[in-house]
UniProtKB/TrEMBL annotation:
Belongs to the 4-hydroxybenzoyl-CoA thioesterase family. Keywords: Hydrolase. The keyword Hydrolase applies. InterPro entries: 4-hydroxybenzoyl-CoA_TE (IPR050563), HB-CoA_thioesterase_AS (IPR008272), HotDog_dom_sf (IPR029069). Its EC number is 3.1.2.28. The keyword Hydrolase applies. Residues 1-22 are annotated as: Disordered. PANTHER family: 4-HYDROXYBENZOYL-COA THIOESTERASE FAMILY MEMBER, NOVEL THIOESTERASE SUPERFAMILY DOMAIN AND SAPOSIN A-TYPE DOMAIN CONTAINING PROTEIN (0610012H03RIK). It comes from Roseimaritima multifibrata. This is 1,4-dihydroxy-2-naphthoyl-CoA hydrolase. One of its GO terms (molecular function) is 1,4-dihydroxy-2-naphthoyl-CoA thioesterase activity. It is an enzyme of class 3 (hydrolase). CDD domains: 4HBT.
Amino acid sequence: MTNSSFPIVSDGSDEPSEPSFVTKRRVEFRDTDAAGIVHFSAFFPMMESAEHAFLRASGLSVMQEQESGGSLTWPRVAASCDYLSAARFEDVLQIALFVDHLGTKSVRYRFEFSRDGQPIAVGKLTAVCCHFLAGKLTSVVIPDSVREAISTPVRDS
């Protein structure tokens, strides 16, 4: 799947045309409203789950213990989702994750949801790399090893 099947808004950046990671998820009853259509809010946990699966497949974690103490973690600072078509209970959605921007301290992901090639939604998450120690969260430069792992496309296991 490429982003050409998703004509939704572009911010003009050099968005990658091939995903870094692709996974699938079946719509569960808890994801839907009374009409059996996926509730708008259900896409956000799906994005987070896809991000976590991508990080695991890359040999990382959203909470990675550090030898120096504390952990490296990724709080979200922005999240959005544009809805293109309805998804329903029992639909199998393909979720393609793109690393749209990898900054010094942050990463912006794009998630393209589709069903049988039909665009369903496009979501975006921005997360900041932080060190968490003794209850304090401090933004830090993304370590080179983490940057390399996030920059490398992986397969869902």
